[in-house]
Amino acid sequence: MDDVPENAPTHCPGTQSEDAGKASACAGCPNQSVCASAPKGPDPDMQAIAERLASIKNKLLVLSGKGGVGKSTFATQLAFALAAQGKEVGLLDIDICGPSAPKLTGLEGEEVHQSGSGWSPVYVEENLAVMSIGFMLPNPDDAVIWRGPRKNALIKQFLKDVVWGSLDYLVVDAPPGTSDEHISIAQFLKAAAAPGAAGSAGCNIAGGMDAAVIVTTPQEVSIIDVRKEVSFCRKVGLQVLGVVENMSTLQVGLPTLRFASSSSSSSSAQADLTAAVQAALHAALVCLG
After folding, report:
1. Could you tell me which of 71, 91, 104, 221 has the fewest CB atoms within 10 Å of its CB?
2. pTM given for the model
3. Average pLDDT of every residue of the chain
């Protein structure tokens, strides 16, 4: 059964069964308390999500195993490139704790407006709409300290309530790793797929595809996690279009390398700390040496 966790005991009734967490087979299962308290049966919001996403032809998830590999930058540039080809494009930022889309699209300070039909995304161009929790924070420096269920609820609301209209592409910028957000978005996309489309190369009800692009850097520590992302995509039935090796030719010569102080204010002048850092590194090397 699809709703049986990998670490479940033999004869597990499934997470959607009325006996979940209560049957004798559930005794000693690490998921017992969660299954017993979770709502049973089909999620009524899935139909609303399917109807909302039915007008979006292609949905592309941009994933990465590690943070800092340029995933959000790639997702944004991909959205701009598709829009430049005359496509109708949406960029959905589901990195709840680290939203980057407002900054990368030049939309900082913009707000989401709500109407009777749902939430209106923010438009950076006539054919490029953006949605992110970053538009909803009163202070962009505020930390979003949410547990998984609350993050999942917001992602569901993004898919269910945002009025995207008819899109050729919805580019989804996901956080690094394979956590709650990834499981939720994969589940919601599967719910919006055409009946019987599972295993048909990611086809969906709009006649397009649901697929993923994985971003990495050349370092082995990053590539290791790419394998985990590929494994995740296989398990949830998500087609991988390819892997982008970002920053593969990036070289910074030591004579041009500069260090500057960080500042919370974008208007504040940053002090050049290059000489001080070089002196400290030199002193450390002398001590080691």
Report:
1. 221
2. 0.73
3. 82
